[in-house]
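An instance follows:
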Amino acid sequence: MRQVDKGNAPTDKEGKEIIFKEYARSRRYLIDRIGEYCSYCERKIQANLAVEHVRPKSLNPELALIWNNFLLGCTNCNSTKGSKQIVLSNFVWPDTDPTFGYFKYDKSGIVKVADGVSNENLRAKINNTIRLVGLDKPAPRAGAADWERASDRRHEHRLKSFIDANRYSAFYKDASPEVKQAAKDLIRTIVIADGFWSIWITAFSDFPEMVNVLKTCIPGTKYP
């Protein structure tokens, strides 16, 4: 999961903190700070990208307009998370925790706790986050009602991204210097267009020059 830095609450031309009258009016500032991507599943969302309340506004109305309580979420992650009461310390969050390296993306398309995380308390928190937004949800069976509705395609998109990222990585490994140079721009463009930053940067972790390209391609990305 991409760790993000959305910064302090935005200010007006006089340097005063903006007090939002509607939470939706923070969307432009969030997009400018951390990109047009779901903070949880990492998909690029060009329409219906919601201002996501980390602690639900229905249970915490005093936090409905507070910058520190905002992230960006897709319809699927947001609806799966719902209005559950949240104890922040029971989860990991992309804007406050070093979430890159906590999650494993593989050919199953199911997000899991990364193998390198050995602390059981931390593993539990990561699993809580996975379940909270449904990153462990498998693809529906072909022909089933959910498959026909195609209302949640996160697993499908994640799996495609994993296959593509690893295919491009294998190609890049044996490419000539000239082809590698051209591939940098292509891969950067794909990641900006589709998202799934964590999958792509993991696939290219053995190539420092590509890591340097990818770690700066999306605004607000915090990379170790």
About this structure: Residues 158-222 form one domain.
